[in-house]
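Dear support,

I submitted the protein below through the web form. The confirmation email said the job was done, but the results page showed an empty box. After a refresh the structure appeared. I'm attaching both so you can tell me whether what I see now is the final result or a partial one.
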Amino acid sequence: MKDHVTPPAVPPAAERIGKAFSDPRGRLPRGRSYAIPMKFGINTLRWTNDFDLEQIPPLAEIRKWGFDGVEITRRNLIGFPARILREAARNEGLDLTFCTSLPAGLSLVSADEEVRAEALDYAERAIELAAELGSPVLVGPFFSNGAKDDEDAWRRAVEAMQILTATLRACDVTLAVEPQNRYQASFFTTCAEAAQLCRAVHDPYLGVTFDTFHANIEESQPAAVLAGLEQYLAHVHVAENHRGMPGTGHLPWIDLFVALHENHYGGWVVVEAFTGEPESGLRHLQSVMAATSAVLVR
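What the results page shows now:
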């Protein structure tokens, strides 16, 4: 697979979405305390597999819990009231991000040209809906199927992303591809493989979603992998090892948040848990933030 080497014309995804610090050494100086500028969201998968406004708590309640935003997961894009939802969220002081995945039978790396074309059409519509929502990022496992050792599939993946960058740029939306664990995906399952795709495409509108649940399965040292993503880190999903709320399992949250600091990350941290109370999950993350600040100033 040959890398596409056209220099980026705009800042990297993490910088545009909200990368926080500019220390040229790539690490936070010791001896000072930093306010963490990350935004916390909650994914609607906590309540439903395919978002509908009536299936989640009122937006005012989510705001009352203390979240900065809501991540909408929607797999059927037909009839999705993006603009209405954007206005409703704005009225409650909430921002939105958008998450989706390719429908069954579609693939961006398929050998079937018609299948790839349908997958591209779906992805382009999802990008446009993200823009209508006001989301700076489109999140999802767009590469779940395919053989990772298939060179032709990798070539088609790069070509698909190069086609989509025109729509991403026009909409000012970053595509944050999400590696999933081996039980849910086959094309790539690690952050290193997702970063490889980003390097090959070499466009600042393509980045990686780091998901703590999937990383706990696939990465031997999740915090080190997180820190090493550098400019390719565009989005973060958090859940425990059992997909519950943060603080109810065994994940090393302080290590992970130190890694976010070391990566100068200032974007979205979205709770994508399937069980538990959202408010308690957020309180745990806030306590981790405070503990992380203490670690960084030692």
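Response: this is the final, complete result; the empty box was a page-load delay. The first helix runs from residue 13 to 17.
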